[in-house]
Amino acid sequence: MNALESASTRPYLIRALYEWCSDNGFTPYIAVRADETVQVPREYVQNGEIVLNVSPDATSSLAIGNEFIEFKARFGGVPREIMVPVDRVLAIYARENGQGMAFPVAAPEGTLNPPVDDGQAPGAVGAAAPTSGARSGIQLVQIPEGGDDDGVDPPPPASRKKPALKRIK
């Protein structure tokens, strides 16, 4: 098996960050691109995305597999079965401090470029999930998937001052 044939790192990273959140007492959230392959309550989808609270308190029968994330949760008191293909997960992060990881957006079938992010945070749903833009303070790291180089340069990072060490005598 060569690098192009190897399995995606995305499900492994999702499981690792889920475990990190749980071990540190944080609430793990996943941001999901909601298209026809995703089984979520459509009434909670905003701008083609949905944020789901995947903590043990908000879900039952959670299974984070290599192909799908599946669980049961209540939305507005109504039990629902949720099924999300792993390649539709945009990010996983801790609600309390925003630390987590973002993933490249998969382009829809038949298109050359991925959808453009409109910069609006999706609504958060699920048990104990806030309804405001929960992703606004997220510190995310972009992880490129192997073999998906489309020849387009990523946008330059936001200009920030580099930290400097000042020597005091």
Question: Explain this structure to me?
Answer:
A hairpin with a 5-residue loop joins strand 6 (89-94) and strand 7. This protein has one helix spanning 10-23; strands at residues 28-33, 49-53, 60-64, 68-75, 78-85, 89-94, 100-102, 124-125. Helix content is 8%, strand content 25%. The protein is globular. The longest helix is centred in the first third of the chain and has 14 residues, at 10-23. By secondary structure, the protein is mainly beta. The chain has a 5-stranded mixed β-sheet. Strands 3-4-5 form a 3-stranded antiparallel β-sheet. The N and C termini lie far apart (57 Å).
Oligomer: single chain
Mean pLDDT: 76
Distance between the termini: 57 Å
As a whole number of angstroms, the C-alpha radius of gyration is 17 Å
Q: Percent of residues in beta strands? A: 25-35%
Count the DSSP helices: 1
How would the global form be characterised? Answer: globular
Q: How do the strands of the widest beta sheet line up side by side?
A: 7-6-1-2-8
Order of helices and strands: HEEEEEEEE
Helix/strand-derived category reads mainly beta
Brief synopsis:
The protein is mostly beta strands and 169 residues long.
